[in-house]
Amino acid sequence: MSQQGYVAAPPYSQSQPGIGGFSAGFGPPNSSPHYGHYGDSSFSAPQPGVSKSTVPFGSSAPVGPPPPGTHQFSQTSFQNGPSTSRQQPHRFQGPPPPSNTGPSYPPYSHQLQPAYPNTASTAPAAQLANQLNSMQINSYGPGTAPSPPRMSSGHPASFQGPQSPPPTQQQMALPPGSQIPPPGNNINGPCAQPSLPPMARQDGTPGPVPPNPNLQQLSGQPPGPGYHPQQANYGPQMAGSQLSYPGAFPGGPAQLSGPQQKKLDPDSIPSPIQVIENDKASRGGQVYATNTRGQVPPLVTTDCVIQDQGHASPRYIRCTTYCFPSSSDMAKQARVPLAAVIQPFATVLPNETPLYVVNHGETGPIRCNRCKAYMCPFMQFIEGGRRYQCGFCSCINDVPPFFFQHLDHIGRRIDHYERPELSLGSYEYVATLDYCRNNKPPKPPAYIFMIDVSYRNINSGLVKLICDELKTLLDKLPREEQEEASAIRVGFVTYNKVLHFFNVKSSLAQPQMMVVSDVGEVFVPLLDGFLVNFQESRSVINNLLDQIPEMFAETNESETIFAPVIQAGMEALKAAECAGKLFIFHSSLPTAEAPGKLRNRDDKKLLNTDKEKVNFYEALARDCVANGCCVDLFLFPNQYVDVASMGLVTMYTGGTLYKYNNFQVDADSPQFLSDLRRDIEKKTGFDAIMRVRTSTGFRATDFFGAIYMNNTTDVEMAAIDCDKAVTVEFKHDDKLSEDNGALIQCAVLYTSISGQRRLRVHNIGLNCSSQLADIYKSCETDALINFFAKSAFKAILSQPLKVVREILVNQTAHMLACYRKNCASPSAVSQLILPDAMKVLPVYMNCLLKSCVLVGRPEIPTDERAFHRQLVTSMGVADTQVFFYPQLLPIHSLDLKNDAVPAAVRCSEERLSEGGAFLLANGLSLFLWLGVSTPPELIQGLFNVPSFAHISTEAMSLPDLDNPFAKKFKSILKHIQSQRPYTMKLMIVKQREQPEMLFRQFLVEDKSIYGGASYVDFLCCVHKEICQLLS
Ligand SMILES: [Zn+2]
Question: Where does the record place a coiled coil (predicted)?
Answer without folding.
Answer: none
